[in-house]
């Protein structure tokens, strides 16, 4: 039985008990400290439909993901983390097509590279060049770049075979990017400790909320995108999750740093169906 089914069953049982309670003395109807109109816990109704903790032995294949064409694989390091090295890019085997109105949370616990020659990312995407609806939950360029980290949204790719330079911008489909380095609290850096990055949206909605939380549960930033239904996954095509660590173009590379890999502790997808 799913968490959602158990939660619904528990809710029905509670409703029956409350109806019966009206027939007995008030002193025995409600447990001390409880109220009839109590709000449910914030997690009520959410169900985890995908999770990977990367607990496989070092070098073992990741069975819920596949390597993208022309890229290198990302492999477990045997310590409970996935090592996403430079030029690695993987995508979930499973895609999700969900009913309109479904709330979605995608989250990953990540330690970013501290180098300046690549950018590591966790993203959501329709694998469709015509309607990609890419959500960059986080892109990290490292501490050696002025924009160390940013969020992003893409609904068109200039380098697609059927476009010319700046065609996306010219047709009103350019990227939206939001630098977030300036929002980091003093002394908090995503290339020094694991942070949890989340993008939350509603299928058929028009806004995505991006958050980062540190290991102590402190919210480091929360950013809401500009309303635009074109930039939120719909229910006509499945969306997938991706992890990548792409090289920047040579002229933008900055030497330095000691760890070029992105380490992934876990990835999860939670939904709340209406």
UniProtKB/TrEMBL annotation:
<dbReference type="GO" id="GO:0004553">
    <property type="term" value="F:hydrolase activity, hydrolyzing O-glycosyl compounds"/>
</dbReference>
<feature type="signal peptide">
    <location>
        <begin position="1"/>
        <end position="23"/>
    </location>
</feature>
<protein>
    <recommendedName>
        <fullName>GH16 domain-containing protein</fullName>
    </recommendedName>
</protein>
<dbReference type="InterPro" id="IPR013320">
    <property type="entry name" value="ConA-like_dom_sf"/>
</dbReference>
<keyword id="KW-0732">Signal</keyword>
<dbReference type="InterPro" id="IPR000757">
    <property type="entry name" value="Beta-glucanase-like"/>
</dbReference>
<dbReference type="GO" id="GO:0005975">
    <property type="term" value="P:carbohydrate metabolic process"/>
</dbReference>
<feature type="domain" description="GH16">
    <location>
        <begin position="34"/>
        <end position="274"/>
    </location>
</feature>
